Amino acid sequence: MDGSINGKSKVRSLTNELNTQEIKKVKGKNLKRKQTKSKLKTKINQTLIWQLFCFNSLSIILTCLLINQGWKPIKKEHIHITGSSILIKNEILKASGDIFPKPLLAINPKEMQAKILRQLPLKAISINRIFFPLGLHISILEREPIAFASRTKNNRVEKGMIDLEATWIPLHLANENKKEDIHISIKGWSNRRKSDISSILKQRANLGSQLKKINLEPNGDITLETIKIKRIRIGSNMDLLHDQLKTLLHLQNSIPEIFAKDSVTTLNLINPLKPKYQINKKI
């Protein structure tokens, strides 16, 4: 009996000893894992701190360089202009109202753009400050003239050109190479009639015959001239323009040849539903 009890005790002791060793091994592994994680975390934190230090140092150095560079005065030779075939640098800078040399940081690109657009007939302009190398880049989009025009200013007739939006372009600022290909003229241009002129120009392909002239009368009436018809009255109600041009297209496709060759023709389209025409034979 005693031998059996002693045997069981020995087995129990051995089991407990094995369990204790097993527990110690597990605890050892957990401790090593924790130590490894702690070391890795410390290393990551050190790396982040070093990266932050380097980034901040670089930022401070670049900021100092930019400030130092930005307050250096730029001269006219540091200004580069692209997209302009007519305007010279001095005209653009004069329109900006800025006086050079001038520190780069003292230049407000948006303000400069607005001033130039008010003074010159440009479609768009973009101005960028460049720190390295020091300079100012001005990119211009010119207006494309499609018609000659005349207007009365200070009791004098002034000649110029206009684009598709009917924006006035002084002759000396219009591209010489384009003038030979332009066969439309506008008489009586004014700023308040820009939208009317532009509407006609945008629909000139729907006239049935090539547009030659747009005449704006002092009383507000508008008359047109095409290759086929000498005088087309459309009046002053631009809400009717679409219907008037549809009627004109129909009439010009069926108009007798005598209209174009042996007569001066007046076509009244003030009421597009009741067009009237008159033939005055040439003497």
Task: Write the topology of this structure.
Blueprint: H1 2-70, E1 73-74, E2 79-82, H2 89-96, E3 102-103, H3 109-119, E4 122-130, E5 135-142, E6 147-153, E7 156-162, E8 168-170, H4 176-179, E9 185-187, H5 194-202, E10 211-216, E11 222-226, E12 231-235, H6 241-254, H7 258-261, E13 263-268, E14 276-281
Parallel strand pairs: 2-5, 6-9, 9-10, 12-13
Antiparallel strand pairs: 1-3, 4-5, 6-7, 7-8, 10-11, 11-12, 13-14
Helix pairs in contact: 2-3
- Strand residue content: 25-35%
What does the main sheet amount to?
9 strands, mixed
Query: How far apart, in Å, are the first and last alpha carbons?
Result: 156 Å
CATH C-level name of the largest domain: Alpha Beta
| SSE pattern | HEEHEHEEEEEHEHEEEHHEE
Q: Give me the side-by-side strand order of the main sheet.
A: 8-7-6-9-10-11-12-13-14
Low-pLDDT stretches: none
Number of strands: 14
Coarse morphology: elongated
Helix content: 40-55%
What CATH calls the topology of the largest domain is Rossmann fold
Q: Average pLDDT across residues? A: 82
- Computed over alpha carbons, the radius of gyration is 42 Å
Q: Figure out the total of helices.
A: 7
Q: Supply the CATH architecture of the largest domain.
A: 3-Layer(aba) Sandwich
The number of domains:
3
Characterise the protein shown here.
- The chain is an alpha/beta fold.
- It folds into three domains: 1-70; 73-142, membrane protein fhac (Ubiquitin-like (UB roll), Roll), CATH 3.10.20.310; 147-281, Rossmann fold (3-Layer(aba) Sandwich).
- Helix content is 42%, strand content 26%.
- The strands form three sheets. It has a nine-stranded mixed β-sheet.
- A hairpin with a 7-residue loop joins strand 13 (263-268) and strand 14.
- Helix 2 packs across helix 3 (109-119).
- The relative contact order is 0.06.
- The model has no long low-confidence stretch (mean pLDDT 82).
